């Protein structure tokens, strides 16, 4: 497992370097389901690069990935879950606040996850048998704070519409920060800068944080308190286990 984890850290940085080196070129942008659900030629190229490297090193392993309909259930064998550019809108508009994400599962069990903040050059990696690090700094487990000394993050529409009481919870805190990407948001939670994250996302958006968060005292659940199905887009919360009972008083 150590060999695969080291391999994953290498290829995610290579994908990040590939993206950085191509950012100055003109992007080809396509709409997927609607005008704000975008994909670029770089999303697809970065995914192709990652898959090629995985298949070259581990030809019997399988892949679930965001683009081009690459789907393999995490419960079936050795499965890499890839999000080549998480936060594509941020990537297009801001040129920052986006991440490359990789998670590795064996027969449905998460072995390690990685979230790479490409522009800040910070790699969050670990989970399973591995401690979680941000680059060379070991990350601490959740340190308890009261709501009134905490911030949360949420999908903007879910917050505005008070879905499941997210806005009610936010009123108990110092406020809301919206980053526009699951990977960046959940890395902020694991770093202790945010208390929790609420969104409506796909398996490749949460697979890495699901593994890493468990190691640090966090839990990723649907808003009705169930384990996500790793098949469909679902409303999720990424919260400290220690705070789950208190959060559930507001998240209905």
TrEMBL record:
**Binding-site residues for Mg(2+), renumbered to this chain:** 66, 83, 85-86, 205
Q: Which InterPro entries match?
A: Inositol_monophosphatase-like
UniProt keyword terms in alphabetical order: Hydrolase, Magnesium, Metal-binding
One GO molecular function term of this record is:
inositol monophosphate 1-phosphatase activity
Check the record and name the SUPFAM superfamilies matching this protein. Carbohydrate phosphatase
Lineage, top-rank taxon, reads: Bacteria
Q: Which GO terms describe its biological process?
A: inositol metabolic process; signal transduction
Q: Which cofactor does it need?
A: Mg(2+)
Which residues fall in a coiled-coil region? none
Q: Which PANTHER family does the record match to this protein? A: INOSITOL MONOPHOSPHATASE, INOSITOL-1-MONOPHOSPHATASE-RELATED
Q: What is this protein called?
A: Inositol monophosphatase
Q: Supply the source organism for this entry.
A: Streptococcus pantholopis
